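Q: Give me the 3D complex with nicotinamide-adenine-dinucleotide.
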Amino acid sequence: MDLGIAGRRAAVAAASRGLGYATATALAAEGVEVAICGRDQSALDTAVAGTQLVPIVADVATPDGARAFVRAARDALGNIDILVANAGGPPAGRFADISDLDAYTRAFELNCLSTIAMCAEALPDMRTQRWGRIVAITSLAVRQPAPHLILSNTARAGVTGFLKTLAQEVASDCVTVNSLQPWLHDTERLRSLPGGTDASGIPAGTIGRPSDFGAIAAFVCSDQARYLTGAAIQVDGGAYGGLQ
Ligand code: NAD
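A: Here is the predicted complex, encoded as structure tokens.
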């Protein structure tokens, strides 16, 4: 299926590996020009080797860093049509493990404010040209908070409210805003967490490949997906047990 986005330009944040990288390569396979960021030049160089991906060193842990990435992507490629807002996850822990309240501030900056900042930088051009796709990578923890991820649960609920509201505001400009809520994909982040790659709670019987996620993200960015907006879609092999 041709997703109808060849020649479009994308900024995919936090994408030297994992779900961001899988999304970037899935978009590039559709003929999208893609800029990716990470904090480390050598990791980026390894990630882009043999691809057309444009590497940009940027740290999206702060709103300024996040905006700077989108600006640099625009400088490199031209107007950004597709924004994939992503960042690393905050440290694991329960409420009792985290006595420093600044940890919540950092998580909020990393997983909420940085997405808002990237949207602020990318949206004006999307609205003017009347075509845009914004996809944020969040977590299934938005629907089903994970007990050991209180920082992530807290920050990502906030960004999900922002995205839903924004989707309604910009829909008439032909800009869609959605989030994807991954659970258990085989990445370094997952392997670093308690329980790691244990698939016993996953109805599909296996953890996801990053490329499974990338294919879904690319479809949400497709021309065909123009009527899909304001959605928060779980990508979880059936792990979520609720109806909504
Ligand atoms: P990962 O750790 O494998 O990869 C994260 C990527 O982001 C790396 O390229 C890293 O260099 C980059 N990065 C991290 N912090 C950055 C920063 N401040 N600035 C720029 N780049 C930065 O993680 P992943 O598994 O691909 O996860 C992506 C997102 O999805 C994370 O927020 C994670 O918490 C969330 N998530 C993942 C899973 C999963 O099963 N993999 C499940 C739920 C949620």
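A quick observation: The pocket of nicotinamide-adenine-dinucleotide is lined by residues 14-20, 37-39, 43, 59-61, 86-89, 137, 139, 182-185, 187-190 (CB under 6 Å).
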